[in-house]
């Protein structure tokens, strides 16, 4: 896509959205412009790649917190994309995971 500065499909995405929602809106707009993975498989491959990069940064001899933050952000961004591709509500899935953790922790 060859858009001029100030004339992007991403223009107008509210910056005051929760970060996961901002990522989702960016990805939806990019997808409407044709910039998207064709299926879930490549999204999962990208997730594997990003987790590998996070692992590499996290176990480095001298871990760099900024690089770890960057890689963790990439993982989270891909997870939002995976939720979009599978039709899962990212926030609802996280709320359910939180509740499951709480139940299990309290039972211990």
Helix and strand topology:
Blueprint: H1 19-32, H2 40-58, H3 65-86, H4 90-107
Helix pairs in contact: 1-3, 2-3
What labels describe this entry?
4 helices, 108 residues, globular, mainly alpha
Task: Characterise this structure.
The protein has four helices and no strands. With about 110 residues, it is mainly alpha-helical. The model has no long low-confidence stretch (mean pLDDT about 90).
Question: How would you summarize what this structure contains?
Answer:
This protein has 108 residues and is mainly alpha-helical. The chain contains 4 helices and no strands.
Query: Count of helical segments?
Result: 4
SSE pattern, N- to C-terminal: HHHH
* 3D shape: globular
Mean pLDDT: 92
Low-confidence stretches: none
């Amino acid at each position: 896509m060859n858009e001029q500065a100030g004339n992007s499909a991403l223009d107008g995405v509210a910056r005051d959205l929760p970060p996961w929602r901002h990522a989702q809106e960016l990805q939806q707009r990019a997808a409407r412009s044709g910039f998207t993975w064709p299926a879930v498989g490549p999204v999962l491959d990208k997730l594997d790649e990003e987790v590998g990069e996070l692992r590499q940064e996290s176990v480095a001899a001298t871990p760099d917190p900024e690089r770890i933050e960057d890689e963790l952000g990439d993982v989270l961004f891909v997870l939002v994309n995976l939720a979009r591709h599978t039709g899962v509500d990212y926030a609802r899935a996280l709320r359910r995971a939180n509740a499951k953790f709480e139940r299990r922790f309290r039972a211990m």
